[in-house]
Amino acid sequence: MEDIVLIIGAGPSGLAVAACLFLLSIPFVILEKEDCTASLWKKRAYNRLKLHLAKQFCELPHMPFPSNTPTYLPKDAFIRYMDAYASRFGINPIYDMHVESASYDEREEVWRTTARNTKTSEMSQYFGRFLVVATGENSVGYIPDIPGLDTFPGEVLHSSEYKSGLAYTGKSILVVGCGNSGMEIAYDLSSYATKTSISIRSPLHIVTKEMIYLGMVLLKYLPVYIVDFIVLILSKFKFGDLSQYGIVRPDKGPFMLKATTGRTAVIDVGTVEKIKAGDIQVEPSVLSINGNDIMFSNGTTHYFDVIVFATGYKSLANNWLKDDGHLLNEEGLPKERFPNHWKGKNGVYCAGLSKQGLAGISMDAKNIANDIAEMILRERRITK
After folding, report:
1. How far, CA to CA in Å, does 330 sit from each of 112, 246, 317, 335?
2. Cβ atoms of 3 and 376 closer than 8 Å
3. CA–CA separation, 158 vs 153, rounded Å?
4. Residue pair 182/159 in contact by the 8 Å Cβ criterion
């Protein structure tokens, strides 16, 4: 019992850690608040979503994609892969368990976790020598507090609720947020004869998936500033000067920006062409809302029927993890920077919270499982 690992979350991070533990013959229990694995992918992803990185950068540990798998997987194919992954490594989460608190019992030297069954409201306790926070960076959708938002009479939804533009034909829609989700949702909406606008508040890099693939290969051999220089040259050649459309580039290159801030370059799916053609209007940041009228920071006001907030997510792990704030900050993300972020005190770890994508999840899972195995072996030697 004392060597059991409690894993909180059955998304890609939890599955990856579980598989690594399975191969080391270390027992584990996974608690998942939803009724399925990978709930973000199965329940909160829009229909046209594809993995933005080539498949070799998206594999979970110890199970490569089949050779006939397309280079860039659509959502449904990746879901099938994760289901097969769970089956292969005998991963059977306990579903519908919402963790209320997890604290370390110093006398017993175990993590005491209290969870509520979301269907019956019954409370249960679980004990483990180790605890892995694998609830992901995307626990709950974030919608900013914009003055007057409560006066908007139309539909307001987060990108996690968006599936397809088919339901919005003929409507005037504002997408707030210019990350990959926002730009792709804007593209999808404009394909269904909607009047589509996107609010872009911050500088961003726009690249193609081929540029990112090239950059990730080159990073194995070249310094990041040279790789950024090459990718920026290619981006300028492909897209030209986008500042006339309200899109400006950050000072840091795309890979340096990712490494230092976690902000990812936008991989274009055709949105830029639609912006240039006038099918998608670019607006600056939203200043305020008055009914259907939305005012922007440049002083203009436009009428909209629907607002889609592609403004990211928040991690809620710091709400239930009681470790005196050693592992996570107030945003529910690791206090330590990558690559030293994954380990806390008293056998607590986090996986998939470093903003390094699926490749970072694999690294975390292997590090955590190996560290737990070494700790168990060391403690057993001491007690002999």
Report:
1. 22, 33, 10, 9
2. yes
3. 16
4. yes
Distance (Å, whole) CA 259 – CA 250: 14
Within 10 Å of residue 222's Cβ, how many Cβ atoms?
14
Do 72 and 51 meet the contact criterion of CB atoms below 8 Å apart? yes
Contact between 22 and 30 (Cβ < 8 Å): no
- Mapped onto helix, strand or coil, the DSSP state of residue 285 is coil
* Burial degree of 299 (CB within 10 A; 0-12, 13-18, 19+): exposed
Contact 359, 52 (CB under 8 A): no
CA distance 344 to 326: 6
pLDDT, tens digit, 9 for 90 and up, residues 80-107 = 999 999 999 999 999 999 999 999 999 9
Give the pair of three-digit tokens for residue 225. 């500033």
Residue 305 pLDDT > 70: yes
Orientation of helix 12-23 relative to helix 75-88, angle to 10° = 30
Distance CA 279, CA 176 (A): 16
Q: Output the CA angle 335-336-339, nearest 5 degrees.
A: 140
d(CA 328, CA 132): 12
The pLDDT, as a whole number, for residue 1 is 45
User: What's the one-letter identity of residue 257?
Assistant: L
DSSP-assigned letters across all residues of 116-151: EETTT--EEEEEESEEEE---S-SEE-----TTGGG
Which SS3 state, helix, strand or coil, does residue 277 take? helix
Using an 8 Å Cβ cutoff, are 351 and 133 in contact? yes
Residues β-bridged to residue 172: 195
Copy the structure tokens of residue 318.
């710091």
- 298's tokens: 């440049």
Helix (H, G, I), strand (E, B) or coil at 348: strand
Reported pTM: 0.90
